[in-house]
């Protein structure tokens, strides 16, 4: 019996998107297709991990496929990411593999190759990233993107969906300052100017920080919010090391 | 005028030229796989001819962009 996979297809060209979708559906897979990286990303952060993601390397306007691939792995480490391109050079392909992409297919992709290499990428990804690795650990923080649960110093953090999404994003790149407009777009799927985004996120961030402070009031809160800049994850060095 | 294309421009032109041909090949494959319904023998032959020609055009673009790239690179020094 065939195992059905959940596959996300992100491709801006309608014909290509239609082709991938129909070929993969004909193999009994469930397919969700997106025409741009932003709508795909907004979907990822609030839905369970797919088995595989097929994503185009280039997109007209908006983030490219590689930056989305990095974000997908930050959110769903078990999802296999296979990249496609109609015109990639060696450097592009090397960059993609270096960034954790599981396979790279040059267009035109024939149907048999598409199905086979996506299947192989899923098997390989699962072998190297067993399901329990889906949980992200950063010091005393543990996040499970599939169940959307978080723990801090072994105590559950009772987070709303927006708070969890904010935390998941900032912990993907500790120390990096994520601007409010980008965070708002990720959480709410809507683009607003940075000052309005900061205003709208204020209560969410305050409550998120408060969850950490409740558990350990003596430790500086690792969720750092800087006025006019953004939000970051900054954990104080363990002095005992 | 002795202006020549830089590698970035060649890459962009190559990408733009390949894109519709790749779409054409994928659509032809979709038809040939029967995923859009049964094809008559004559239609199948026609679609195969479209696919073969699109592949040839794609190979031609590949050669052309390789040639442009090899001419452009020495000027980057």
Describe the structure.
The complex is a heterodimer of chains A (241) and B (77). Chain A has helices spanning 14-26, 37-44, 65-75, 90-98, 111-128, 161-172, 180-188, 194-215; strands at 6-10, 30-34, 52-56, 80-85, 103-106, 136-138, 141-144, 149-152, 155-157, 178-179, 223-226, 230-233. In chain A, β4 (80-85), α4 (90-98) and β5 (103-106) form a beta-alpha-beta unit. Helix content of chain A is 42%, strand content 20%. Chain A has 2 domains: 6-132, Rossmann fold (3-Layer(aba) Sandwich); 135-233, Arc Repressor Mutant, subunit A (Orthogonal Bundle). Chain A is globular, with a radius of gyration of 19 Å. Chain B has one domain (7-72). Chain B is elongated. The model of chain B has no long low-confidence stretch (mean pLDDT 87). Chains A and B meet through α1 of A and α1 of B.
CATH architecture of the largest domain in chain A: 3-Layer(aba) Sandwich
What Rg of chain B do the Cα atoms give?
Answer: 17 Å
Number of self-contained structural domains of chain B: 1
- The shape of chain A is globular
Strand arrangement within the widest β-sheet of chain A reads 2-1-3-4-5
CATH H-tier superfamily of the largest domain in chain A = Response regulator
Into which percent range does the helicity of residues of chain B fall? over 70%
Mean pLDDT of chain B: 87
Please give the count of helices of chain B: 2
Number of helices of chain A: 8
Average pLDDT value of chain A?
85
Note the run of SSEs of chain A as H and E: EHEHEHEHEHEEEEHEHHEE
List unreliable stretches of 5+ residues of chain A.
none
């Amino acid at each position: 019996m065939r195992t059905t996979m959940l596959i996300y297809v992100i491709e801006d060209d309608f014909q290509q998107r239609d082709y991938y979708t129909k070929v993969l559906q004909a193999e009994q897979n469930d397919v969700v297709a997106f025409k741009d990286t932003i709508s795909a990303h907004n979907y990822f952060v609030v839905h369970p991990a797919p088995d595989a993601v097929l994503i185009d390397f280039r997109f007209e306007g908006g983030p490219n496929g590689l930056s989305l691939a990095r974000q997908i792995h930050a959110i769903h480490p078990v999802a296999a990411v296979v990249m496609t391109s109609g015109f990639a050079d060696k450097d592009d392909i090397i960059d993609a593999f270096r960034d954790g992409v599981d396979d790279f297919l040059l267009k035109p992709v024939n149907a048999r190759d598409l199905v086979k290499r996506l299947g192989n990428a899923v098997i390989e990804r699962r072998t190297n990233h067993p399901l329990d690795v889906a949980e992200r650990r950063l010091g005393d923080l543990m996040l499970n993107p599939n169940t959307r649960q978080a723990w801090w110093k072994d105590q559950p953090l009772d987070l709303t969906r927006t708070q969890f999404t904010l935390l998941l994003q900032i912990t993907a790149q500790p120390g990096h300052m994520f601007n409010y407009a980008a965070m708002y777009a990720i959480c709410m799927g809507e683009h607003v100017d940075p000052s309005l985004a900061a205003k709208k996120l204020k209560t969410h961030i305050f409550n998120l920080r408060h969850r950490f402070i409740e558990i350990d009031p003596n430790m500086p809160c690792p969720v750092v919010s800087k006025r006019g800049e953004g939000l970051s994850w900054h954990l104080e060095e363990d002095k005992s090391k | 005028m002795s202006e020549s294309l830089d590698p970035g421009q060649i890459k962009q032109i190559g990408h733009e030229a390949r894109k519709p041909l790749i779409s054409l090949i994928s659509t032809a494959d979709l038809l040939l796989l029967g995923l859009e319904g049964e094809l008559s023998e004559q239609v199948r032959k026609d679609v195969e001819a479209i696919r073969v020609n699109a592949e040839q055009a794609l190979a031609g673009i590949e050669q052309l962009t390789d040639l442009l790239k090899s001419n452009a690179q020495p000027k980057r020094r």
